[in-house]
Amino acid sequence: MGKGTTIITTEPIYVTVVRPSGPTFTLIDIPGITHMTADGQADVHEITKGMVESYIKDPNMVILVVIPATDDFGNAEALKLAKKYDPYGLRTLGVVTKSDLIKPDSDIVQRIKMEGKNIQLELGFIALRCRTPGEVKEGITRAEAMASEHRLFEKDELLSQLAPAQWGLRTLVRQIVAVQANRVEAFIPEIKQLLSTRLMEAEAEAERLAPACASDAARSSRMNEMIRRIDLDLHDILTGARHFDDKKLHLPTVWVDLAEEFGQVIHSATPDYLSAEYKEMLKVSLKEVQGVSPQNFMMYPIFRKSLVAAFFKTATSANEVGGILFSAAKTMVSKMQDAMQEALDAKVDEYITEFPRLNDHVKDRISQLLKTQSRVVVHHLEAILKAELAKPFTFNHYYMDTLNKVRNGVMSRSRSLMMVGSRDQALRVGDRVTPSKGNASKGKDSKGTVVKCNPDSTAEVDIFWDDGTAQTVYDNGLLQLLGAEAIEGVTGDFIEDAAKIFTKGQSNSDQAVIDMQLSIFSYSKVLLKCILDDVPKLVWSELLYTVNVELSSFVKKELMDPANLAELMAEDPVKASKRKRLELTITRFKESLKIMRAIK
After folding, report:
1. What is the CATH superfamily name and number for domain 220-396+512-570?
2. Distance CA 587, CA 437 (A)
3. Which of 81, 322, 479, 529 has the most neighbouring CB atoms within 10 Å?
């Protein structure tokens, strides 16, 4: 019975009957094929017909077609379906019920005997007289009912014409058992083949589920091999020895991208030291220290204050570092750590697949190593930045080179503004020059540097041209001073403004501001060049390279204890349970196959 408005459903109800003796078989009682129900279930015919077909299409199923004796066998839809799925009638039995309700003129005997043009079944029909609902209520036993059935078929004028093999419940049971035995016997070769195939499949599956490592030596060997593969892959990733399709394994590329990102963050946060705004800020700072120290670019408090404001402004004490350099560097370290964790986790998942607990343990150890090395990087960063904060200083010639280059540009432009006569202009060593319009010995776009001036002649100078050639010019009227050449970070406006200050001979204070701007600008370029190289190299050295060197020993440190390793490499409980069930199945298959092979 179905739920709600549905009277009939395809969901089966299972009833198990156990008795000490008798044949063993499964009886499936299917509702009769119905066309109409009292409550008008519209699809009842499709449901009942489909249910019948779903069972009787199985070639190993014995079909009992139950037809009331009072019905026309020819109109029985169940018989038509049986002939469709069992055309030779090798497994179809006709069961005629309600034999006690026939009329005296009934042709039931002829139909059961299949005489004339009546429906023919290979296994024939068997007539029954079942207990009525009233007899069941009265407590009539099965034995009493079978006795009544026997009297009916022996005494009834029509039914007594049937042979004993054509009526009775005992006859039906014997026939069912015989048909079932014939079906089993016919199916034995197929059963043997099926059992053999299933047994081989089960044994192959059991072999696949067999414990990977059954001894301490086997576990140790297997563990070492898995860690070795992870270690070698990391080495190949960092050295480029092999190409990996998975982009999260491209750690050198990640490192380069993070280094560029680090540089972009620092450059974007670096003040424009040569801007008019910064110049005004320096003027205010210089006024604050007037009378304390000379007004020049070596005025240490102003110089240091400017660097602190740009790069260390969040430092909370003299013993701590903060600011954009430290935060951007830590961000790079953190992102590189995350990228390495993701890449190494992928490798652990690739090579440690059978031991979930070992997989988790190795990932945890790798995480610890990465965190340790990240702290090492940050510690080194703190030391470098503390040193810079404590003593802004450099031996790098790039500082003076940049400073002099900008100064020369300013002074060259300043002297140009003074309108010194072409032949009277006093060229100096280091001046940058270009040929004048009347100089045909060099192209108009040539540039060179004055390397020597003749003390006896203001017009005679030695020039080293940028194309690598040298020339002595005896008439400096053939040369023209360059203004500011292209210097990264130096604008033409700054050169022009600074040149005007020096040309007009303005106050020491104004010139001190210019010197301070140039000094801070040049020093910050040196500082950033060092930092933008040192931080990425430090990340590579202490995070990528050192992790690769120490990975194997660090991970295996806690795996040397056989008991600990055995616990981490213990068989997965789900897998063990599946394997035990499979072993039981294999045993049953073997026993069944042994019995089948014994049957001749």
Report:
1. Dynamin, middle domain (1.20.120.1240)
2. 106
3. 479
